[in-house]
Predict the 3D structure of the following.
Amino acid sequence: MASRSADSRNGTGSGSSPTIDAVSLAIIEQLQEDGRRPYAAIGKAVGLSEAAVRQRVQKLLDQGVMQIVAVTDPLTVGLRRQAMVGITVEGDLDPVADALTAMAECEYVVMTAGSFDLMVEIVCEDDDHLLEVINKRIRALPGVRSTQSFVYLKLKKQTYMWGTR
């Protein structure tokens, strides 16, 4: 299996490129199916001991290749408004991206090429909360020239299985 970079997965931009072999990819696939799957069961599926799986998982976590987290449906935890916001910036993108990354409502921040310099996924309690985040906090950041909001009407698919394709 070819070397894969963790940068696109963990947002660090560190430039490191850990080598992910076929066995590690198989472990990742097992955890993507069930993040609580016991290491012994994973070991049986991939042909390693429980201890070897535990060591590999820890290495993958330490390298930033993956995270093991609980993914929720925002609606079920009281977050009824989601939007993708395209942002145009004057000057250096890094300070704006860093400020957005620090905002709890910003779940996804990516630098882009094209019509927008940054794309940010925002998850809020309601429309008033979304308006406050965009109008009072994002537009107030030095360097932000304009924003364009794409409010989500219905979530049709949310998956994180792309990591081993």
